[in-house]
């Protein structure tokens, strides 16, 4: 197992663990809120961390069949993982600070250029991972 796959599996485990912590925070919010609801971004962070953990598992499995050198694999997996982690962190930050319930109401770097970078990084990295799988499994 190469370093890119190990990194991606480690990220999957960390995202899963963070998602479980998010579940605890969500429960705390439900139990302490007059409306019995957690802050919307705690809810989003909880679900996003759990979903990203499984996305990272899929990425790791696809990387097993990658035709690219490990250095390229590290980039094409590292970029999406970075954005997954950044998104989870932002959701928790907004929820724990009791911030806005819709971060896109205010236009700023994060909601404009940050989102553009996230889209290109996630689609580009995962697209390259999937393409590598297709090349080795169907076109070789």
Determine Rg (CA atoms, Å).
17 Å
The main β sheet shows up as: none
What class do helices, strands and sheet pairing give? mainly alpha
Helix count, per DSSP? Answer: 4
Query: What is the top-level CATH class?
Result: Mainly Alpha
- Give me the CATH architecture, please: Up-down Bundle
Estimate what percentage of residues fall within beta strands: under 5%
Mean pLDDT over the residues: 97
Helix content: over 70%
At the third CATH level, what is the topology name?
Four Helix Bundle (Hemerythrin (Met), subunit A)
Q: End-to-end span in angstroms? A: 22 Å
Write the element-wise H/E pattern from the N-terminal end onward: HHHH
Low-pLDDT runs of 5+ residues are: none
* Total tally of structural domains: 1
Features:
mainly alpha; Four Helix Bundle (Hemerythrin (Met), subunit A)
Please characterize this protein's 3D structure.
With 140 residues, the protein is mainly α. It has one domain: Four Helix Bundle (Hemerythrin (Met), subunit A) (Up-down Bundle). The protein is 77% helix and 0% strand. It contains 4 helices and no strands. The longest helix has 30 residues, at 3-32. The chain is elongated and about 60 Å long.
